[in-house]
Request: fold
Amino acid sequence: MQAASAVDAPIGVFDSGIGGLSVLQALRAELPHERFVYLADSGHAPYGERGDAFVAARTHAISAYLRERYGIKALVVACNTATAAAIHEARAAHPDLPVVGVEPALKPAVAISRTGRIGVIGTRGTLASAKFARLLASLQGQAEFVVQPCDGLAHAIERSTAQALPADPASTEIRALCARYTGAMGRFGQAPGEIDTLVLGCTHYVFAQDDLRALLGPEIQLIATGEPVARQTRRLLQVAGRLAPSQGEAPTQDAVQLLTTGALDPLQAAAARWLQLPADCCAAVQVPS
Ligand code: DGL
Reply:
């Protein structure tokens, strides 16, 4: 294992699949001088309907793997479901490693909603978690929240990456699921009593933003978490004295490595589509629990 404190070590990032690439986009923009190793646990996705014990075991195995194989200097859990199920355990298991999680951005939504009625979509696991219940309770009285689990949506997004055409079956399914779930939440709009702000409480859903916008209209505010997570990562690295020096050229060689426990092709397609990265950044690996 490399020394975890080395400023030139990579930052580890993981998600159940390709959803966390939306967080990686924000991390690369905020921290252009850092190296990243991203693990998509696509062989075990989706996490959202699997239960806490399974998700905690995967989080444990992946954190240990990224430390041992890549000597990461910080870990970003780019998955709301894994954060809700296992971030405390990850921090306890790696007390010397900065660990950043993601949670649905309810507080920023309260700050910008005019109607005070806010929609939250996420996985069943995230929205049923004790962590989410505490977050909701902490904002009681400040807004009304309409909470909608979206079974199957992350999985459909995961499958769509291999086929980028709008007419592919997974894209059709994404649009149908978005319509069904947002339809069940009540009216969206700017009038009193209508939902004017929608929190994307799953990192996969960022990749369905265009479908959600087309359904709900351009005036509905969609809130994701990539940018605040990237800023928090910068803060923690700074405090730990592990920020890569920002003078000189940004790294090019191995600046981003993308790993998957599933099939390689979909990750390569997602890397090209969402991050404009070449196929040779991607590799298939095994991470046994
Ligand atoms: N992208 C993940 C999240 O943010 C998990 C989706 C899933 O695997 O169900 O919750």
The longest strand covers residues 117-122.
